[in-house]
Amino acid sequence: MEHYIQVIFVLALAKYCLKAAMTGRLWVMAAYAAVAAVVALVLYPAVITRPVTIVAGLLADRRLVTDGAVLTTLEATLGIFTSIYLLDNYFKPRAQRRRRIFVLKVVPGVLWMLGVAYFELLFFRERVGADFRATAALYAALIFAAVLLTAWVIHTLIRRESMKLELKILLNMGILFIGLLVNATVADYNTSDAQSTVAWGALGALCGTAALLFALGLWLARTGKQTPFINFIKRTFNGSDH
Q1: What is the pLDDT of residues 42-72, one digit of tens each?
Q2: Which of 63, 107, 158, 209 is 20 to 30 A from residue 20's alpha carbon, by CA?
Q3: How far apart, in whole angstroms, are the C-alpha atoms of residue 101 and residue 193?
Q4: DSSP 48
Q5: Which 8-state DSSP code applies to residue 96?
Q6: Which SS3 state, helix, strand or coil, does residue 191 take?
């Protein structure tokens, strides 16, 4: 079950990098990376006092699992509706766009900070016996580099603002789905004693297919090529307008 939590944290950190990429400026991406590094440094005194099995202990408390599911559901749902609103604003004529809602696009959530703390805990576990401050500084540097590099790659590969917002919706949907799955399995109102078996092959195939389709859509958008499927969609929507 802890693997599900790890996936949620990875998606949350990816969403944080995406928000940095949506600013479109390298120095702002560096500022996002610096904030993540500072969070890692601030949290390390609390992280080193926690056992590595803290997530397993939290999952054993069904009430805390329910509270966590509420948090993930709220953040993911708000992120989805915010992205839809931003997409609607993006496709309006320039004169009708609201520029003040830009803040909705770049304000990060909360889950990414929990992800930073969790992976910092795992990092300290791998460096048992090393100096705490040196380990915290090294982890902060790695977080800074990872966030900056990921944000720059996203900004470079996905130029269109609409596709970045669509990617944000997909990430939030992933967080929402996995959060609900964890909640349905071990929440306080679930009194059954069931063990979930993950079909990692099928899950990998699903994620690979989604990534392949996203890459295909990105390639079609960048090249501007027309396919029979795209022409069919255009004819369908154009016909519905008349």
Answers
A1: 988 888 787 767 767 776 767 777 777 778 8
A2: 209
A3: 46
A4: T
A5: G
A6: coil
